[in-house]
Every structure is written in C-alpha cells, then in structure tokens.
Amino acid sequence: SGCSIAYHLAKLGWNDVILLERKQLTCGTTWHAAGLIGQLRPTRNLTRLAKYSADLYAQLEELTGVATGMRRNGSITVALSEEREQELLRQASLARAFGVEVHSIGANEVKSLYPHLNVSDITAAVHLPPDGQADPANIALALAKGARQLGARIVEGVKVTDVHHDDGRVTGVSWARDGRPDEHGHIDADVVVNCAGMWARELGRLSNVNIPLHACEHFYIVTEPVDGLKQLPVLRVPDECAYYKEDAGKMLLGAFEPKAKPWGMQGIAEEFCFDQLPEDFDHFEPILEMAVNRMPFLAEAGIHTFFNGPESFTPDDMYYLGEAPELDSYFVAAGYNSIGIVSSGGAGMALAQWIDKGEPPFDLWDVDIRRTHGFQKNGRYLKERVSETLGLLYAEHFPYRQPETARGIRRSPVHEQLKKKGACFGELAGWERANWFARPGQEPLYNYSFGRQNWFNNARAEHLAVRGGVGLFDMTSFGKIRVEGPDAEAVLQRICAND
Known about the structure:
Elements: H1 2-11, E1 18-21, E2 36-37, H2 44-64, E3 75-79, H3 82-97, E4 103-105, H4 107-113, E5 124-128, E6 132-133, H5 136-149, E7 153-156, E8 158-166, E9 169-177, E10 180-188, E11 192-194, H6 200-205, E12 214-223, E13 234-237, E14 242-247, E15 250-255, E16 262-263, H7 281-294, E17 303-313, E18 320-323, E19 330-334, H8 340-357, H9 379-392, H10 415-420, E20 423-428, E21 431-437, H11 456-468, H12 488-495
Parallel strand pairs: 1-7, 3-13, 11-19
Antiparallel strand pairs: 2-6, 3-5, 4-5, 8-9, 9-10, 12-15, 12-16, 12-17, 13-14, 14-15, 18-19, 20-21
C-alpha cells in the first residue's frame, strides 16, 4: 500500500513524496502473498476499490514496463450447503448492483470450468470472469517504478525511528540506516502515512496513535508440477476453508482455518525480512484431507513447498484507512486481513485523494481508522480476537453474527440483572449489550441463518410490550457526545428534532 499511495500522490501532482522502506521492497508479507484478485467485497465502496485495483494492475505493465503477472482467468466460489448457497446468491445479486460481471452457475458448469474438481456435493456456485491473479511482488515494484517516474523518491534500508509532532500535528520523522544506527537523520514532513503492515501498531504507539492489529500464521502448500494442469480460474471452497490457484502447472492450496495461530506475541525480530515461519503440518492437515477429496489428483501430487508466513489481522476483519483521530496529518493504511493485494490499488487511490482534498472521496467508514477504540490495543485482547478473524474471511457472513472471542471487555452496571432476565448478549464497541431476551426454557444463543432467525418472536414480544406498556433500555453501549460552550444550546436546537 505504501508504493500505491506514493504512486497516486505523485499522479495528483505532489512533487515532494518520499517512501522509506525498513529493509527491501516487498519483504514482510507482500513477497509471499497468494496474489488473488477478487473484486466482490461486502459493501459497494469496498467493491469499488477492489475493482479499481484489478483495472489498475491490468494497466501497470504498459505504464511502467514491469510485468505484474496480472491475468483475468476468473474466479469460482462454490457452496456445499444451503446456507452457503444463500450467501453466494445474495453476493451475486450485490455484485451485479455494483457493476461487477458475475454468473450464478451449477455443478455441471463448475465441472466444465474446473475439470479436476469433485463436484458431487456442490449445491451452487458463482463465477466472476473479470477476477484473476497476479504477482504481488511485481505489483509493488511496478507501483514503485511508476511513483519514481512521476517524481517520488523511494529509499530502501531506512527505518523510521520516530514521528515528530507539535501542537497536535505531524512535523516530520527521524530515521536510521538499516544495520548502521550511527547513520541517522530527520525529514521535515507535513503529512506522514503509516503503511508499516505488521509493524504498524508499534510504529503508531510511538505517537500514541492506536492501530489495533496482530499477525497470524498463514499456511499454504504448492505442489510439484502436475501433468496436464493448465490455466484455471481461482477457486474458493469456503465451506472447507480452502482456496486454490494454478500457477505454472503447479497447484497452490491455501487455508483460512476457523481457529488461527496468532504470531509475534514477543515482538518481531529486528532482522525479520524475507522470513518464513516454522512448518506445522498437524495444523494444516485437516484442510489438506478435505482438499484431497475435493481435488483428487492432490493424493498423488508431491508437495514442493509447505509455506507458513505472517499476515496481520484486525479485530473486525476490516483494514484501516484514513487520518488518525489522535494526531492531525498522521494517516494510516494497514491491517489488510490477507486481502492486501486486491485492496492496495484502490486504497492507495482513495487515501491519496483524502490527503490531497482533506476528506475521503466517498464513504469509507467501513475501513476508517477512527472506528477503533483504546482498549483494542491490548495485546491479550488482540491475540485472542485475531485467532477468530482470520477464519471469518471464509465463514458464513450471517446477519447479526457476533464475535465469539475476546468477549466481556466492557459490561454495564446492570449486566448481571439483564443476564438473569435471559439476555442474549451481543458486542458493540467492546460492550456486552442485551440484544434480545430468551423466554423461560429457551437458551439465550443465536441460531444464525439468512432467513428469519430464532430471536424474531422474542423481539416481537419486546416491541409489543414497549408499544403497549413501558420499557427500560440500557443505553450504556451507546456513544455519548458532550456539547459545551456558549453556543451549545443553539447548536443542539439546530441538530435536534425538538426543543
């Protein structure tokens, strides 16, 4: 994302842009990313950013002469259950509304597009022809070259050691040469952007800027060359937590398992660069067992590479973009939750415009850094929560789904009384909030569905009780705004609907 932001700022005419890379471009996470370019995201504007990325990467080679490996071989996502089928069909409808080409297809059509696949239990699928795959490292290098061509400077082997500020506004950064701490200096700057990936939280902490993220181990295998394996669409089988990518006659199988392994609890080693983490075949084996059934040739294919590398995840599975509320002109682009390649092109474009104009180009609240809370920087909280959010990428995205980990962070003064009344608690900003009340003998737990869920009649009873009688609402979890000063009453009279 740093290369993308530098490129897009330079495109807007900013002629004094410098990107500092602690080691070498693409080290950390980019070099080992899978490079899947899937355009469909949960909201209109995030889909807009992903679509922009795909279009940009298709043009970069012509613009810079650096091959990005971008090929639009399409993608297929398959459903193995009725609930997943509902989700995919809803997503397909959403994609059409967003202007993304998508087709709902059956098992026979999947088989024709993906002959190696066991389709016996596939209930439905969606095919997005404009999706594809690319080379993550070369995308970064192409963006870097494009930025340089437009006048930006990129300096490798330089680590930011501090971000300076005065009167609540950024003034510059201190730096040190990698491996030579005696070679250091200062750069005056009106704007600083933290694109430090796994290191973003620690860099933000130097300036009291809250960037809650934590790395997890991310696994994939690459087979030996497979006879007859030709170009195929990217395949996602979320019910088996798996994705597949053909590359140069080999098959890459990756996983977003339900219970992930957080990494880096003791910090990240200073020398960490193009490093990989220790293998853990026991952890990956359940995914591989399902994959052998799904893709039978894997039973005979040799494993060329077993890879384990770190990627950073956030508490709500959405990345961070925008100006930090703690410090003016300190911007953030980090925490990409394993969709950094498809997000970075669009995120770089949006953040460059945000910096240039002083406001986002369109509604980006889903990823706005201002949504974070102070308690989320706690290491124990993050370690527990990201063990869940990695897997949520491929979990069913049910309405009203509540996180299961790192719960009970904040409780209202009447929490226990509400619990005794049968409250089923959800989470909002860390608060345990009574979302509905179970009847006597009913368990206060969600039964998730894309149809009418198990709490519908409970909510109906509450509605009728309040409409016909009186109700008491615990407002602890709601945001509170203090309005002070001589014009406070006039401002509130204008904002409020009544005196």
